[in-house]
Amino acid sequence: MKQAPYAELPREEFESRLKKAQELMENRGLNAILLFGNKDVYYYSGYRRTVATVKVEGILIPATRPPVMFVPQLTSRYCEKAVWVEDVRFYGGASHLNYTRTVVDLVVQTLKELALDSGIIGLELGGDLFPDISFSDLQAIINQFPSVTFVDASPLIWEQRKNKSPFEQDILRTAAKIALEGFQEGLKSLREGMTEADLAQTIWKSWFSRGIADTPMEGQLLIRSGCGREGPEGRYRCTHARPTDYPIRKGETVLLDAGPCYRGYFADLMRQGCVGRPSDLLSKLFDTATVGYRKGIELLKPGVKISDLAQQAIKAMVRFNPKVQYPLSFVGHSIGLAIHEPPWFCPTDESFLEPGMVINFEIGAYDSPLWRTLGAFLEDMFLITEEGCENLTEEGTITLWVTD
């Protein structure tokens, strides 16, 4: 049995994921799945990139035999020690090593060797999956196999990835805790005159001190502040805003959003602060969002239809404050190896919440279309359990932090 002393993925987790993937392939009549997206490669092999390289890494999972990995010679030794896959094949490197020159040649050679030159093979062709291989290289592989039907494997992959194992749940629970504590430290430091960049540094330092140190570094931090009288063209309307050197002024609201990445898994939540007493308008919007939030989390339990969750949360908010116009098409999403994973919680989504899903429920009360204030935005991470849900970021959600 292979030894993998640097493996992040426990062997039993690795074997369980492969077994499930092969069961799903059998149910769908697939002969194999061929994956190049670094998140999918990690999910099925345990190999997580250590550098932000343009080199291609991939995994082939046949339906009836063990998987094969394709990695550049540069990372071959680490891959040998960090994954449980027995059959790891290398390309590139110095000519005297006699490895296949390109990943295209290596994949083509392997598919022919394993008699996968006919049948049905799944690729990452849609569904919010993005293979880390150039279009021309992927097309070159496809062109070599006219007798193969290549199909989109994303439904299979998301069916498996949407329900997190206990191993994944523990990682996400830790990521959520670290994210929340960083936001709390950031809000405590909030003061008039500090820049958004200053605030971001405080939060990232907190995350680093709690174990967010990785390579390549991942994670996201969105900070939005702005003058309360800017109107529709102002910064309050910039939904995905990066921290800038903008100095936060008295009377302004600050929104913190997203979170760090821990062992490959993302956190995502929102918290708000106000420099000075919040306006009556902002307080009313915060109360409005709280009504929608509370209604939503009442429904976070197995068997609830996602469309019902979205519709009822928005309706509760509008009943409380008829002036609110909810401009988004969703009230949440799943989370895991990507910060946004399907399903998105839309009023038209007919799928159901299931035990093991880790999701974000988020809802906001906007001052649209006037944008006299930032508005109120509540977001937490939840694990759907057999009985209901576990809030992974519970503290401070419905509290508007106010600093003098």
Considering the chains and any ligands shown, give keywords for the structure:
404 residues, Creatine Amidinohydrolase, Chain A, domain 1, alpha+beta, 33% helix, Creatine Amidinohydrolase, six-stranded mixed beta sheet
Please outline the helices and strands.
Blueprint: H1 11-28, E1 32-35, H2 38-45, E2 58-62, E3 68-72, H3 76-82, E4 87-91, H4 103-113, E5 119-123, H5 135-143, E6 148-152, H6 154-161, H7 166-189, H8 196-209, E7 219-224, E8 253-262, E9 265-266, E10 269-275, H9 280-298, H10 306-320, E11 332-334, E12 341-344, E13 358-365, E14 376-384, E15 389-391, E16 401-403
Parallel strand pairs: 1-5, 3-4, 5-6, 10-16
Antiparallel strand pairs: 1-2, 2-3, 7-8, 8-9, 8-10, 11-12, 11-13, 13-14, 14-15
Explain what you see.
The structure is a single chain. This protein is an alpha+beta fold and 404 residues long. It has two domains: 11-161, Creatinase/prolidase N-terminal domain (Creatine Amidinohydrolase, Chain A, domain 1); 166-403, Creatine Amidinohydrolase. The chain is 33% helix and 21% strand. It is built from ten helices and 16 strands. It has helices at residues 11-28, 38-45, 76-82, 103-113, 135-143, 154-161, 166-189, 196-209, 280-298, 306-320; strands spanning 32-35, 58-62, 68-72, 87-91, 119-123, 148-152, 219-224, 253-262, 265-266, 269-275, 332-334, 341-344, 358-365, 376-384, 389-391, 401-403. Strands 4-3-2-1-5-6 form a six-stranded mixed β-sheet, sandwiched between helices. α4 (103-113) runs parallel beside α5, α7 packs across α8 and α9 runs antiparallel to α10 (306-320). The longest helix has 24 residues, at 166-189.
